[in-house]
Amino acid sequence: MSIQGELFAVEEPPAVPGLALVREAVTPAEEAELAARIDAAPLAPFQFGQWEGKRLTVHYGSAYDFSRHKLNDAPPLPDWLVAARDKLAPQVGRDPGAFEAALLIRYDPGAGIGWHRDRPQYGEVLGLSLGAPCVLRLRRRTESGFDRRAVGLPPRSLYLLSGEVRREWEHSIVPQGVTRRSITLRTLR
């Protein structure tokens, strides 16, 4: 795959310890069903304190409150999301029940996600990319600037952030001109 972004060259296989990538984690039919379920969910613009993001989101299990800096309860995972979690987690050697928090995201054209590391209240992060290919950009600060990596996420791919990549690296996704959806599952610390 030849997806490239500014200052990034896609590496296959990923060169960051703790990052796992599974291609074709779901079938095209499952992808279409999951996309329809995400679109039918009560999506709302992402809230970051007083700011509102372009991406549309909904939380299940728990949600981070950026204004109070703590986790809040969220509605329980719906049955269809439990079934997806139960299929996805074993593909990266993880116990599905450990992933108690879920986030559905729809990135409409022009929506991305800036540099961040998931809140420390969360442990491992499992992400399913749906609809359009994108590049998961990774960076960590060094004495001379940033060490950077990029991982191509084809549609239906699953990634796991654990260990070093989860603790020491930030990640982001550049805004695109097409709609993309994702399911993020997280363990709690």
3D structure, described in words:
This protein has 189 residues and is of the alpha+beta class. The chain has one domain: Alpha-ketoglutarate-dependent dioxygenase AlkB-like (Jelly Rolls). The longest helix has 13 residues. A hairpin with a 2-residue loop joins strand 1 and strand 2. It has three helices and 15 strands. The strands form four sheets. The protein has a seven-stranded antiparallel beta sheet with strand order 3-13-10-15-8-5-4. 15% of the residues lie in helices and 47% in strands. The N terminus is likely disordered.
Number of strands: 15
CATH architecture field:
Sandwich
How many structurally independent domains? 1
CA-atom Rg in angstroms? 16 Å
Distance between the termini: 35 Å
* Fraction of residues in H or I helices: 10-25%
Global structural class: alpha+beta
Task: Indicate the low-confidence ranges by residue numbers.
Answer: 1-11
Q: So, the CATH homologous superfamily?
A: Alpha-ketoglutarate-dependent dioxygenase AlkB-like
Described by strand count, sense and barrel closure, the largest sheet is:
7 strands, antiparallel
Label the overall shape: globular
For the record, the CATH class is: Mainly Beta
Number of helices in the DSSP assignment: 3
Protein traits:
189 residues; alpha+beta; Jelly Rolls; seven-stranded antiparallel beta sheet; four-stranded antiparallel beta sheet; globular
